[in-house]
Prior knowledge:
Blueprint: E1 2-6, H1 12-27, H2 33-43, H3 46-52, E2 58-65, E3 68-76, E4 90-97, H4 106-120, E5 125-131, H5 135-143, E6 147-155, E7 161-170
Helix pairs in contact: 1-2, 1-3
Amino acid sequence: MIKIIKATSEDSDLIATLGQQTFRESHGNSAPKEDIDRFILNTYNTDTIFKEFENKKALYHLLYYDNQLAGFSKIQLQTPNANISNENISKLDRIYLLEAFQGKQLGVKLLDFNIALSKQHNQNGLWLVVWVENKKAIQFYNKMGFKIAGAYNFNISKTHSNPNHVMFLEY
Length: 171
């Protein structure tokens, strides 16, 4: 059974812990270990996540599968991108599943949920960035209708950045 629930600031510790694990699983080999560790420490800690809930355009959701926490997402409404001329678009800032839950169509469910959420808020599309070496994710987004719209350098640290695609789904 799949359940997607809206997260609140009370879930900050849970999101931080899940974010640390899923980021390490998906991006752990994209930079030197010290850079990854520092990025995770700065990005996926309870205080940082808690403060993100102050932004009313940012919506976190938790995905449960058979009553086990399997992943999460963060969408930001009304977030333009320089590579995309469309107005009223959302950014899918984070969408992560634990490796143990991949291959169960949960990513499709969570993405479909976020697309529907974006549409409910009268948005005209959804964009995201994905590491160019994450072939599995790029294939997934292409299958879901996303198109490459530009490039973005994702800074892991002051000395390391990873090339990313900006991908966009118009609706």
